[in-house]
Design goal:
The protein is mainly alpha-helical and 330 residues long. The protein is 70% helix and 0% strand. 49% of the residues are buried.
Length: 330
């Protein structure tokens, strides 16, 4: 099958709408936990707890940070800075699910634990990074602003102020480490999802998503809807949790780079942040805030893949329906 024929068969519009649904649902559900993770990663939660108790106290855990935010900043603070990620992650999920479907056909990825699914996911990372770096930067600066000067009225105001003060390039602070994190995350994400999805389907029904395990097999639509309703969110949740655990040290470094006070004359790049974390907190410092991240990842990814596959079920009766689709680029 040629690339042009594949684009018509896979129906890019359906894949894009499925990815869009995944992005909106996942962002709204997971944003409060992302805020808690950022506070824990950057040490602000510990500083606030120490200041409030005279110092010398253990950093609060996930529920302690959440309670601290609601008590001191109000419940709406849990969604401060959601604008950039809601827009960018909707775009990113639209692109990532669509490009994954396309490149999976090129690489001939199969259902199950196939490393080619990882390659299909990672291929789009350089493009994703161009979008997620400004989004992550603005989101992190907004999240940190609540415990600094509270100078930003909203995401657009934050962007305009920082660009005016530091130039347009400031939006791409931490781009290298963010793009690396993006590739590590999305490669693991789709690899684990396809693997867990096939494993759970076989465990629940005695058979997988299709004969021969290739994408687009006709057997998938005949699977009981109840089986898919159980398997998709569970496989998606496991994929998200594993991917965040795998890429979390890179995200911790990214948060340190992008969340720094821009008024500080000392510039701290990714290598410096990494070295400082190891020196002051040890290896455990690279996993500060991992608890809420894993919880968020399971919730968000489970709902994200459910929204994606649910949309494709409405459009064409299932993600894998329509026969085996691989691309021959000759």
């Amino acid at each position: 099958m040629s690339a042009d024929d594949f684009l018509q068969t896979v129906n890019i519009g359906e894949e894009a709408l499925g990815g869009l649904a995944a992005g909106i649902v996942g962002t709204v559900l997971g944003f409060p936990l992302d805020l808690i993770k950022t506070r824990m990663q950057t040490g602000v939660a510990a500083s606030a707890a120490g200041a409030g108790a005279g110092g010398g106290v253990r950093p609060p855990g996930m529920f302690g940070v959440a309670s601290q935010i609601v008590r001191s900043e109000g419940a709406l603070a849990l969604y401060k800075g959601i604008g950039p990620p809601l827009v960018s992650l909707s775009i990113i999920n639209t692109l990532s699910f669509t490009s994954y479907s396309y490149f999976r056909g090129i690489y001939r990825g199969s259902n199950g634990w196939d490393v080619r699914n990882s390659y299909a996911g990672m291929t789009g990372a350089p493009v994703f990074g161009l979008i997620t770096t400004p989004e992550n930067f603005l989101k992190t600066q907004m999240q940190m602003d609540n415990v600094r000067s509270r100078r930003f009225r909203g995401s657009l105001h934050c962007a305009s102020v920082l660009v005016r003060e530091h130039g347009f390039r400031v939006l791409y602070t931490g781009h290298a480490v963010n793009m690396t994190r993006e590739a590590a995350f999305v490669g693991c994400y789709f690899y684990c999802y396809e693997g867990f999805r096939e494993t759970f389907l076989r465990g629940l029904t005695g058979r997988g998503g299709g004969e021969g395990g290739v994408r687009g097999d006709e057997a998938a639509p005949s699977l009981p809807p109840t089986a898919m309703a159980a398997v998709v969110p569970l496989a998606g949740g496991m994929a998200g949790a594993c991917s965040w655990l795998f890429s979390f040290p890179l995200d911790c470094v990214r948060a340190g780079v992008q969340g720094r006070d821009l008024g500080d004359p000392i510039r701290r790049g990714a290598v410096r942040v990494f070295a400082d974390l190891l020196a002051t907190k040890g290896v455990g410092g690279l996993y500060a805030g991992v608890g809420p991240s894993i919880a968020r990842a399971f919730l968000v990814s489970g709902s994200r893949f459910s929204a994606y596959e649910g949309a494709l079920w409405l459009f064409r009766g299932g993600r894998d329906r329509g026969g085996v689709q691989h691309i021959d680029l000759k």
